[in-house]
Amino acid sequence: MTVITGAHEFLDSEVYIDLRHVLDSPLYLKCEGFNFAGSVKVRSAAWMVASAQREGIIGPDSVLIESSSGNLGVALAMVAASKGLRFVCVTDPKCNPSTAGLMRALGAEVVVVDEPDATGSYLAARKTYVRERCTQDPSCVWLNQYENPDNWIAHYENTAAHIAKQFPHLDTLFIGTGTGGTLMGCARYFREHRPQVRIIAVDSVGSVNFSGAPGARHIPGLGASTPMPLIDPELVDEVVRVPEPDAIRMCRRLAAQGVLLGGSSGTVVSAALQWLNRYAAKAPTAVAIAPDLGERYIDTIYDDAWVAEHYRDIPQDFLENQ
Ligand code: PMP
């Protein structure tokens, strides 16, 4: 039995799926969707808030504000509520309606900006709103996941340390990239403690992380429309880019086996399978981090009409053959 005193003591899921039994692939999937708040981002949320409280940046009357495509927003809503703090999440129309609903249920104010840039990204508009609100209201504190080192330190201290303990013979680790918090925390940990572990960054086609060409993307969480300041490409051994339709195919393939995961998990598994098919002999123990579960995507990547509308070049028979 595990007893906790509140949501700020978030739970590490400790669940891994052995995909040899699901996709016949030698890959362990670390399921972060079983964490409190349903995603990997609770680690950064709890760490950033605790650290800002320790440093006196957050006081009892502070209003936390953050730009998030969803999961950090839900995690911060939970952490803020557990500490009696107000929280404003600045998001955009790509945020799944159910995710915004979760934040509201946890007491957060949800602001949806609606001015996309040329690639369809709302990140610049979200950040502009955050800055304006902080100017108007001095009690607002922007934790700034895009530049806050505590975002990656959370993963150095717990995500990576946990994987290292569970897998003493780890060879290759696949990590999706949004802000780069998960990637950088894990990459720094393994560079320092087990430099032989191969770190593979996974990104979406259309993301500018790792100097990719900008393009339209519809799956929230993974990828970036402007370079992410936390990312140091020198710490990464390889980058694998996955087109979003391939990620959706992988999500649906896993769901058909009873494993319902989010879009970025489909992206990471798709990249890992591609890589392992080429180099399996080199990777006796491979782990991929699955950032969240599929429930939040039932109306998007698991909805045929949504997929047909957003991916016009998806083969006609894709949906029919599900
Ligand atoms: N996948 C999902 C579903 C996410 O919510 C996030 C966080 N934006 C990521 C991947 C990427 O994580 P990070 O910000 O640590 O790079």
Automatic annotation (TrEMBL):
Enzyme class: transferase
Domain Tryptophan synthase beta chain-like PALP: 21-289
Known cofactor(s): pyridoxal 5'-phosphate
Listed pathway(s): Siderophore biosynthesis
Keyword Metal-binding: no
Keywords annotated in UniProt: Pyridoxal phosphate, Transferase
EC number from the UniProt entry: 2.5.1.140
Any one Gene Ontology molecular-function term assigned to this protein's record: transferase activity, transferring alkyl or aryl (other than methyl) groups
Matches recorded under CDD domains: CBS_like (cd01561)
Domain of life: Bacteria
Biological process according to GO: cysteine biosynthetic process from serine
Gene3D superfamilies recorded: 3.40.50.1100
Pfam families documented for this protein: PALP
Keyword Kinase: no
Similarity section: Belongs to the cysteine synthase/cystathionine beta-synthase family. SbnA subfamily.
Function as written in the Swiss-Prot or TrEMBL entry: Catalyzes the synthesis of N-((2S)-2-amino-2-carboxyethyl)-L-glutamate (ACEGA) from O-phospho-L-serine and L-glutamate.
Subunit-level organization: Homodimer.
UniProt protein name: N-(2-amino-2-carboxyethyl)-L-glutamate synthase
Lineage: Bacteria, Bacillati, Actinomycetota, Actinomycetes, Actinopolysporales
